[in-house]
């Protein structure tokens, strides 16, 4: 009887040792599996982030426009400087000041409206004031008279003269840019070029 009890105790002891060993081994495997899963998740996340960042190229600017009547009413014999303008809450546009002698009114004579977005294929661009000469203004007005256009578009594009600067190609349309994302346009042959620094001719 004593021998039987000793054997039973020994069997129970060995069983407990085996159970603890198996349990510890399972925990180790679970932790390893969790580590592998975390690595995989991190790798996937990093890969997705890299891919998304690689796609974030270019600078988005807005096409700007005004109705043709306002442009036709710009004074003759004056050039016009369009100044970068911020309007609450999130509008970035251009406001125009005509001048013949270098003196300006307190408020802009014309402020362009925001149209469809355009992507410029550069990571860095310089956006600032642009200008139209007296002759360029006349050419746009003549084109309006010839085509009977109802809107004047300012399309942002990279300058062909100043590296990474933005200039605006002037186009005409009869389509309302507020309603038509890609209006039918007619060229004027005029571009609003970046304005030189103050003091330059």
Structural descriptors:
single chain, globular, 33% strand, alpha+beta, 201 residues, 3 helices
What does the model show?
The chain is an alpha+beta fold and 201 residues long. The protein folds into 2 domains: 1-56; 59-194, no CATH class. Helices cover 36% and strands 33% of the residues. It has 3 helices and 9 strands, in the order αβαβββββαβββ. The chain has helices at residues 2-55, 68-72, 134-147; strands at residues 59-67, 79-87, 91-99, 110-111, 113-120, 130-132, 151-158, 166-173, 185-194. Strands 4-3-2-6-9-8-7-1-5 form a 9-stranded antiparallel beta sheet. A hairpin with a 7-residue loop joins strand 7 and strand 8 (166-173). The longest helix has 54 residues, at 2-55. It is globular and about 40 Å long. The N and C termini lie far apart (118 Å).
List strands and helices in order, with pairings.
Layout: H1 2-55, E1 59-67, H2 68-72, E2 79-87, E3 91-99, E4 110-111, E5 113-120, E6 130-132, H3 134-147, E7 151-158, E8 166-173, E9 185-194
Antiparallel strand pairs: 1-5, 1-7, 2-3, 2-6, 3-4, 6-9, 7-8, 8-9
